[in-house]
């Protein structure tokens, strides 16, 4: 680049050798370009030089045509203008150099600041520990057990105790409103699970506690399926038929809300299916069969979403066994109303009850009784007796266990004969 500039300046000097004024002008231009090359770079100087060279040649033609005095004044004016612009350019370059120097000085300190920020972990608020009995290790979060006339599923919600982190201590960060809401919900769900495991009085209290919080947490799926479970318990504990139907209807409405809110919640489909089964006891024949189809559809969906839940397989086994016992007339009514009757066999029921035992051995007394009934219907007396003995070895805890024991007492004489 310097060679190109030097060659052009040499041509300039040759073309103006006969004019002393032009030679002085060229020398001053060389001085200007030298300053530009040192301060702003050769490329900028070359562009400026080529631009000004065209103007100077035009000026030189006017000088040759117009005479000496006027041309000298015009030349001085142009030189003054060039000097002024050059001074401004040098000032800008000087300021730019100062900014670059300041940036270079700041970079090492900036790196240290970034490292310090990365070394200090963020502080998180300590979560409140939910009140209630401690979880037993080895139990799943959706542990199912026989209670309140139905095998009920409880969820032990996770209790997290997040310790504050950070170097050198400091004030704790206050939890946000969202965090407080989650903590309140966790406490409520733990309380509901605890009351569900208790006596009938505690189960009634659990329903009232959940109803009192429905306006606040009515859009939370975990809250809604527990409310459905509480309605099922209330239905089983009620003695008046109208009260039973009222609890079943209210629970089914909550189930419809929960499924609409979150169709991917297995527990919502599971408890909605149970409530459809309960409602079939208080409906007409047409609605009874319709609820039977709803029961099966939502139970299948629950198994699809959560394939290792023993409660769903137990309920499906009960449905298959009931369908297998339908009379010809009942099947005919179903065909007339819906075009296709429900289809299931004792083998289907046995398969589901065995799946329950596979997932969770000794799941419930009632599951053993239904295994015995399936084996008896299939003519396998020895296996039926084994299941009866297994059922007899289990203690009677819930109302459903009492019903299972009554069926066991009536089943054993027929197998022993």
UniProtKB/TrEMBL annotation:
Similarity comment: family membership: Belongs to the RMDN family.
Acidic residues bias (residue ranges): 157-166
Keywords attached to this entry: Coiled coil, Membrane, Transmembrane, Transmembrane helix
Compartments it resides in: Membrane
One Pfam family this sequence matches: RMD1-3
Feature: compositional bias, Polar residues: 406-417
Residues spanning the membrane: 30-49
A GO molecular-function annotation: microtubule binding
Gene Ontology CC: membrane; mitochondrion; mitotic spindle pole; spindle microtubule
InterPro entries membership: RMD1-3_a_helical_rpt (IPR049039), TPR-like_helical_dom_sf (IPR011990)
Protein name as catalogued: Regulator of microtubule dynamics protein 2
Membrane topology listed for this record: Single-pass membrane protein
Region described as Disordered: 114-180, 396-417
SUPFAM superfamilies: TPR-like
The keyword Transmembrane is annotated on this UniProt entry: yes
Ligase among keywords: no
PANTHER family: REGULATOR OF MICROTUBULE DYNAMICS PROTEIN, REGULATOR OF MICROTUBULE DYNAMICS PROTEIN 2
């Amino acid at each position: 680049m310097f060679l190109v500039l030097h060659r052009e300046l040499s041509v300039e000097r040759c073309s103006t050798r006969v004019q002393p004024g032009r030679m002085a002008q060229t020398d001053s231009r060389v001085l200007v370009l030298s300053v530009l090359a040192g301060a702003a770079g050769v490329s900028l100087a070359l562009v400026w030089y080529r631009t000004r060279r065209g103007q100077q040649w035009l000026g030189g033609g006017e000088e040759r045509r117009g005479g000496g005095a006027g041309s000298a004044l015009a030349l001085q004016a142009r030189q003054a203008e060039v000097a002024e612009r050059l001074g401004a350019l040098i000032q800008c370059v000087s300021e730019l150099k100062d900014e670059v120097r300041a940036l270079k000085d700041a970079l090492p300190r900036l790196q240290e600041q970034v490292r310090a920020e990365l070394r200090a972990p963020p502080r998180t608020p300590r979560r409140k520990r939910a009140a209630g009995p401690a979880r037993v290790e080895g139990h799943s979060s959706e542990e199912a057990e026989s209670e309140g006339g139905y095998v009920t599923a409880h969820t032990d919600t996770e209790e997290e105790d997040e310790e504050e982190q950070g170097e050198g201590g400091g004030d704790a960060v206050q939890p946000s409103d969202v965090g407080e809401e989650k903590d309140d919900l966790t406490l409520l769900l733990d309380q509901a699970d605890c009351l569900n495991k208790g006596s009938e009085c505690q189960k009634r209290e659990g329903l009232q506690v959940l109803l009192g919080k429905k306006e606040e947490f009515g859009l939370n799926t975990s809250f809604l399926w527990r409310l459905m479970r509480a309605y099922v318990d209330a239905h089983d504990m009620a003695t008046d038929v109208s009260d039973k139907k009222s609890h079943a209807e209210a629970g089914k409405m909550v189930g419809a809300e929960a499924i609409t809110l979150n169709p991917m919640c297995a527990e919502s489909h599971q408890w909605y299916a149970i409530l459809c089964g309960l409602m079939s006891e208080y409906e007409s024949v047409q609605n009874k069969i319709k609820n039977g189809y709803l029961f099966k559809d939502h139970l299948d969906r629950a198994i699809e979403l959560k394939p290792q839940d023993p409660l769903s397989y137990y309920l499906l086994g009960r449905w298959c066994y009931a369908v297998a016992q339908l009379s010809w007339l009942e099947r005919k009514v179903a065909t007339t109303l819906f075009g296709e009757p429900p289809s299931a066999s004792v083998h289907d029921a046995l398969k589901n009850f065995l799946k329950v035992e596979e997932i969770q051995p000794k799941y419930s007394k009632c599951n053993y009784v239904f295994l015995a009934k399936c084996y008896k219907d299939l003519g396998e007396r020895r296996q039926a007796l084994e299941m009866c003995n297994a059922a007899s070895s289990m203690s009677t805890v819930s109302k459903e266990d009492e019903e299972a024991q009554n069926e066991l007492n009536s089943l054993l004489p027929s197998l022993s004969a």
